[in-house]
Amino acid sequence: MSLLLIIALAVAALGLIFAATYALARRMENYGIVDITWSYAFGALALFYAATASGWAPRRWTIAAIVIIWSGRLGTHLYRRVMSHHPVEDTRYTEMRTRWAEGFAAKMFIFYQQQALSVVILGLPFLLIARNPAEGFQPLEYAGVALWLLALLGESLADAQLAAFKRNSANKGKVCEVGLWHYSRHPNYFFEWCIWLGYFAFACASPWGWTSFICPAGILYLLLCVTGVPMAEEQSLRSRGDAYRAYQKRVPVFVPWFRKN
């Protein structure tokens, strides 16, 4: 199957999936479910590339497997978070309702389709890896998988520590400073970015793999400047006030590091 046909089919299929998600979101009155679909979509995309591309089979199915594991964990984590608050919508989407009040339905549908397109763009390393015909794994590929594994464990641990902290009613209104949160205000986001660095390192062993640098760069921009850290910080300041301001002064924002006295 040609490269253009593979990409065209991926764009069309994901467009339909996100359109169906949009219809469900309208029925539920909760547009935050797009985050769940976005996460699971990467696993589906990697599986599609592994099944249709013509690269060395062990490499194709290795990248599919690790993406499916990451995608499934993240999607399930987001599903639990979104549904635990339903019908209360994530603040990002309530703000969109206000900002896009005129023509909201059409604008939100376009937003959902943009999310579908972002999955295809960010999935570039998976396609390049799946098309690599060279037999045998290269050192960069081993390094990429090792980095991916460490990052996945770090992200899972950060999520588990925060969830355990929130389950304790005695911590209501307090700032989580346990475990990895003692050294970074957003260790989950940091390790999410490291996962994408792992995909990039894996892809660099394939022809044109270096072009997928746009993926970890794009994820870093989103996390630090758009939907990740800025919104999380804003929400924490609203809910925890001065306690969180003091936490901001003591603890690095992203990369885990030593605290300030």
How does this structure look, described?
The protein starts with a helix and ends in an 11-residue tail after the last helix. It has 261 residues and is mainly α. Helix 1 (3-28) packs antiparallel against helix 5, helix 2 runs antiparallel to helix 3 and helix 7 packs antiparallel against helix 8 (187-203). It is 72% helix and 0% strand. It has helices spanning 3-28, 34-52, 57-85, 91-99, 104-122, 124-130, 139-167, 187-203, 214-226, 229-240, 242-250. It has two domains: 1-135, no CATH class; 137-261, no CATH class.
Gist of the model:
By secondary structure, the chain is an all-alpha fold. The protein contains eleven helices and no strands.
- Helix and strand composition category: mainly alpha
Radius of gyration: 19 Å
CA-CA gap between termini: 59 Å
| Average pLDDT score | 95
- Low-pLDDT stretches are none
- Report the total helices: 11
Helix content: over 70%
State the major sheet: none
- What proportion strand? under 5%
**Tally of strands:** 0
Order of helices and strands: HHHHHHHHHHH
Shape assignment: globular
The number of domains: 2
Give the SSE map.
Blueprint: H1 3-28, H2 34-52, H3 57-85, H4 91-99, H5 104-122, H6 124-130, H7 139-167, H8 187-203, H9 214-226, H10 229-240, H11 242-250
Helix pairs in contact: 1-2, 1-5, 2-3, 2-5, 3-7, 6-8, 7-8, 8-9
